[in-house]
């Protein structure tokens, strides 16, 4: 499990600044919260906190310049946490900006321009020392800028702290206020309120916490007749907006968002970032099979797979000694089989001719080696299953994007798709609807081609054929609005990823000959927890919409990027 450590600083009494009323109370309340939720270690620096004795020689916990600098220098000299862990730093007190730098003022800090550099602590120094702890996630919570003057421009600025999540109580030139009725600063009150939310609306991620504070703090100030105070966040790098701060409150959607970011980093060859993200997922879900599998792939990759190099023109290897592909001549007038579902909803299936093709590509390890596969005739859905079709069979619509009943159904797991097929086969007697095998899917997608996409090698043309990150507007679209492939199949690239029947295999290296000779047969596995996805989606870029691209998710995983398409194997 991930470790969580924290350091809380609260200062009421200042030598050279006006006193504060509730800064110590704020720090103690944060200490109590961190302890309550099971943090491994919490350091407290307040006007009257006891000495810190966990690291050998005791540290003075008075929040003076000398004590704070010494603790940050000595305690953080060597790493004591690791990737997947978190360190939280909370400061409640005076802060100011000077010479384009942000400073936290200790109890003996001097705000005069000639004294600040000698008696205040640069925020950049704090974050640099905290990063030495070894945790790959450092969170700064700053309830500062509580100066006593009326002039503007002396609050903390928006200085970016490398590799750190910063949540500040107010924007530059604003002031951070204490609320007498609450006996707390409004930032700390709202922060604790947000962190304690359970169920719907919880603030488990950086993004939701920041959004909650952004509207809640002005609301609190207004209700207590205090001036405007707008909190802000500086998150570096930007992907940390999706990081999960509170694992026990995280939703499946939170984990899914992290998984997608990890997958994208791994696909781009950014293995350092991918490893961090997959490790983060394990911190939330220690037994996650997908994260474990991905990390094993990263740790055991060979030197020549350190980065992926896109191939601009994929052509069939004519020097191969294996049997040549029997490329079937595309039919310009596909044979359609139409079935009627309850509510007079039509289900159209396209006849796919028997033949053979070269499956896979040389672009990515998971798509190697290219190999010949033979298939018998079958029918494949003209479109992905739509929301109205799913509603007609299942009596419900789990989708996120419900603006059009002809949008592809999403938020369906592989298990959900199996249940759909079971009920559909009960409705239409004598038929055997199921998910396509991975070979059936790629064979039908290629429609007799051997290029990167079924329309050629030029990714710039993808917008004519599918919905992906550059044209989707971050949502699904009604099926059939783009051009079909040469066999009359629509949305084979983009819109939603599509489940296949097969369990996921790391590559085709060990594919049995009997499966190659009959691609209509499922390639089984002793580990069937991960199932294949094909086709890309509205969220991802053109690379993931290639005909050979493949990925996987847990069989019970639901997300608004994922749907499915049907096969009919008995006519």
TrEMBL record:
PROSITE patterns membership: CASPASE_P20
InterPro entries documented for this protein: Caspase-like_dom_sf (IPR029030), CTDL_fold (IPR016187), Pept_C14_caspase (IPR011600), Pept_C14_p20 (IPR001309), Sulfatase_Mod_Factor_Kinase (IPR051043), SUMF_dom (IPR005532), SUMF_sf (IPR042095)
Region (Disordered): 306-330
Gene3D superfamilies xref list: 3.40.50.1460, paralog of FGE (formylglycine-generating enzyme) (3.90.1580.10)
Domain of life: Bacteria
Recorded GO MF terms: cysteine-type endopeptidase activity; formylglycine-generating oxidase activity
Name the UniProt record assigns to this protein: SUMF1/EgtB/PvdO family nonheme iron enzyme
Protein source organism: Woronichinia naegeliana WA131
